[in-house]
Amino acid sequence: MTWVTRIIAGFAGSLRLAVPPVGTRPTSDRVREAIFSALDARGVLPGARVLDLYAGSGALGLEGASRGAAHVTLVDKATAAHRVTNENAARVRKAAPRGAAPEIVVSSQPVQSFLGGAVGATWDVVFLDPPYDLGGLELVHNLEALVPRLSPDAVVVVERSARDPEPAWPVGLDLERRKDYGETAVYFLSAA
Predict the structure, then answer these.
(1) What is the DSSP letter of 148?
(2) Residues near 139 by Cβ (< 8 Å), separated by ≥ 6?
(3) Share of the chain above pLDDT 70, in %
(4) Where do runs of H (alpha helix) occur along 58-123?
(5) Longest dimension (CA), the chain
(6) Cβ distance 23 to 76 under 8 Å?
(7) Element (H, E) at 146
(8) Predicted confidence band at 116 (pLDDT cuts at 50, 70, 90)?
């Protein structure tokens, strides 16, 4: 098991997380810290329902859990990612204060299948950190399927390669801002 990332803050702060040996590109601590600083400033995490699509190690969603999200769903179809994410989720649950553990659900479905079957579920904060080679059209399809599952004040955070053109945002999502961190572009979107 490889340990290359950690929870930054909250009840599980400094907890090391495993990363799947292949097929993932973990969000750096620097980028995660910037993302969560922006989310903390908005006050959207306490009690939130968080969805982490293309979860990999689950670091983004589990960081949200550590910072007060009530429910976190981690979705990644890769077998290695699913195994590691389950282990990381168990470690975060164990670190939670007695009686205050967030609900953490891990799904091994493809993102599009998960969203298609998530009828009635809504989320307040959503992370999409797909592989950089995921085509722009597939990303747009994911976002289109996500829109009806967003709460009215939802925040969607999308990570892409800074070299890629900006995705075409579907109806129902408004771009608030883009911030680049080296090779990573982070887009903050809001439900329209």
Answers:
(1) G
(2) 128, 130, 158, 160, 167
(3) 96
(4) 59-66, 79-95, 111-117
(5) 46
(6) no
(7) helix 136-146
(8) very high
Tokens coding 59 = 């670091």
Beta strands in 7-110, from DSSP E residues, in sequence order: 16-19, 49-53, 71-75, 103-107
Taking all residues of the chain, what is their mean pLDDT, rounded to a whole number? 92
Picking from 19, 151, 161, the residue whose alpha carbon sits closest to that of residue 84 is: 19
Tell me the pLDDT band of 29, cut-offs 50, 70 and 90.
Answer: confident
Tokens of 33: 């810290």
The burial of 83, by beta-carbon neighbours within 10 Å (0-12 exposed, 13-18 middle, 19 or more buried), is given as: middle
Give 147's DSSP letter.
G
Q: Are 93 and 15 in contact (CB under 8 A)?
A: no
Please give the Cα distance from 133 to 39 (Å, whole number): 27
Two structure tokens written together for 100: 């205050």
Question: Residue 37's pLDDT is what?
Answer: 96
Whether pTM exceeds 0.85: yes
Q: What is the average per-residue pLDDT within 27-41?
A: 92
What residues contact 66, with CB distance under 8 A and at least 6 apart? 7, 9, 10, 11, 12, 13, 15, 92, 95
- Report phi then psi at 147, rounded to 5: -50, -50
